[in-house]
Amino acid sequence: MGKSGACRDVRLLSVAPVGPEGAAYGCYLLEVENPGFEPAVAGQFVMVRPLRFGQNPVWPRPFSLCRLTEEKLTLFVQACGRGTDILCGLSAGDVVTVWGPLGQGFALEPEIPTLLLAGGVGLAPFVEYVATHPAPSNLSLLFGHRQPLSCYPFAEMAVRIGRAEAFEERSPADLPAFIERLDAAVAGHADGLVLACGPRPFLLTVARLARKYSARAQVSLENRMACGVGGCLGCVEKNALGAYVQTCTEGPVFWVEELALAEEA
Amino acid sequence: MSVDTAVRLAGLALKNPVMTASGTFGYGLEFAPYGDLRSLGGIVVKGLSLKPRLGNPMPRIAETPCGMLNAIGLQNCGVAAFLRDKLPRLPHAQTPIVANLYACDADEFAELAGVLSAAEGVAALEVNISCPNVKAGGIAFGQDPAMAGRLTEAVKKRAGDKPVWVKLSPNVTGIVAIARAAVLGGADALTCINTLTGMAVDIRSRKPRLANVIGGLSGPAIKPVALRCVWQVCQAVSAPVIAVGGISSAEDVLEFILVGAHAVQIGTANFMRPDMAFHIAERLPALMAALGIDSLDAYRGTLSR
After folding, report:
1. How confident is the model over B264-301, as pLDDT tens digits?
2. N or C: fewer beta carbons within 10 Å in chain A?
3. Torsion (CA) B106, B8, B23, B284 in degrees, nearest 10
4. Mean pLDDT of B101-115
5. Cβ distance of B34 and A55 shorter than 8 Å
């Protein structure tokens, strides 16, 4: 395989809804030819821009590496806007430009009990994490979701790891119960490692709980970015010292104490 | 057919007219994994100030139809860190490195010009009198011909033998008056144009999409405005013009050369794919050959009406 940092035009191998209800809820797995990436660290991401974007939309879209093998790169995409709608509407054979793997991935400490906390499409990087973890029995997963569970690549992960739990949030009224469940999970890993990926409010909760239990925790940010390579300075995040760090190059995965998230929470 | 893409620009020899625009290519090093920096006509680095700048709060960028808004606020590492940590790692012997500079007042602009002009490896200075995203300085200099002229003069006095380019704003009633004032002030070239002031809002949250509320619009959406401005300025002044604004293909490059530009800068298109500037520079000779253009000098400004 070629060196990392490649930018290549590659063919889309397949676009398939996840599970029987995936199409109805806009949840898809996209497989593209491996653009020449070497093995990557789970939590790293790629930028993807189909030729079909033309000049509108302008930006590529960032996605966590969901799975990377020598042959192909798999992305988990939820159609939720113009760019992702176009991506999920592509067909096998369509050409997409892909560059990466980018940024810093999740810590891997195989002997340490590790809690994976995922919210919605934030499940994606943990697919690679679980698949490449040398001691999956040390992993626990708590997954919060709003679409039917079959819309996510959850089942195949769940069977590989020590403990996996899914929590469906049907309405805002379910949120306190989910936060209670998160609290218990983080408390149970106060001496372990906590890794989280999901929407910002979810990460703020994780940051607060990590501080509450003095747990070692990392979060993967989903900040808006244009280039993904450190050129635009659009994706910055305030760190604990009040300076800006770049999510694309210094993240997207950060130790919670590096950031000002806990203050925001 | 052999073609000549070389360009002479205010004392600089460029192997081709394709440069990168300030603020869209980092300090150059960020894009090194995606192409050979030496293949570019020039690299204009992220705008520099005397001291490091934190920039504006988040969110700082928003996508718009065929473009984007930014309100980065000139976040940068400061001139000292640039000269110490970045410039030595750039291929300045093979490709001109242009320092874009920003300051809050004319004295600070002049001081910064003095520091940068003394640096080996800086080929030219690009004076940003047109940033819409900072409170002090910035666009205020670029909207008043007298101020633009005086500022150019102050920078030119401290620039030594380094060419001084002045980057013009489209957010003015008449860009030609500012262009003429900058040339009278001693500008060796004009960069045309900076971003257009714009705004985007979210009807659900009822909030602006940028924390700064307004920002600079760039990308293919602004190309017709840039083309008009470049054409008008090229008609009015004899100084060379460097075109920037929505350029994302070799065809776009030739459009701007056709209306009179000497060179171009690739901006937002660098975000569309990180090897875009390299691709455009590589494709230009083949396009010229296909159109029967053997030299850019001969093609420049040949628009007929």
Report:
1. 999 999 999 999 999 999 999 999 999 999 999 999 99
2. N
3. 160
4. 92
5. no
Helix B250-258 × helix B276-290 angle, to 10°: 60
Q: How high is the pLDDT of residue A238? A: 94
Report d(CA B151, CA B272) in Å as an integer: 34
Question: How distant is the Cα of B24 from the closest Cα of chain A, in angstroms?
Answer: 6
Taking CA atoms, A64 is separated from A128, A132, B290, in Å, by 9, 15, 41
Supply the pTM of this predicted model: 0.95
Q: Does B220 touch chain A (CB under 8 A)?
A: yes
Average pLDDT over residues B234-262: 98
State how far residue A227 is from chain B, nearest Cα, in angstroms.
4
Q: Does A55 touch chain B (CB under 8 A)?
A: yes
Return the H-helix or E-strand segment holding B19: strand B18-20
Task: Examine the residue annotation and report whether B131 is marked as an active-site residue of this protein.
Answer: yes
For A24-58, the pLDDT digits (tens) are: 999 999 999 999 998 899 999 999 999 999 999 99
Query: How does DSSP assign B111-155, residue by residue?
Result: HHHHHHHTSTT--EEEEE---TT-SSSTHHHHS-HHHHHHHHHHH
Q: What does residue A13 show for φ and ψ, rounded to 5 degrees?
A: -85, -40
Q: How far is CA A123 from the centre of its chain?
A: 6
The contacts of residue A21 (CB under 8 Å, 6+ apart) are: A147, A148, A150, A151
Band (pLDDT 50/70/90 cuts) for residue A6 is confident
Select from B61, B210, B248 the residue whose CB has the most chain A CBs within 10 Å, as the one to mutate to test that interface: B61
In tens, the pLDDT along B18-29 reads 999 999 999 999
Residues of B in contact with A59 (CB under 8 A): 63, 68, 271-272
Q: What is the DSSP string of B191-252?
A: EE--PEEEE-EETTTTEESSTTSEEEEESGGGHHHHHHHHHHHHHH-SS-EEEESS--SHHH
What is the value of ipTM here, to two decimals? 0.94
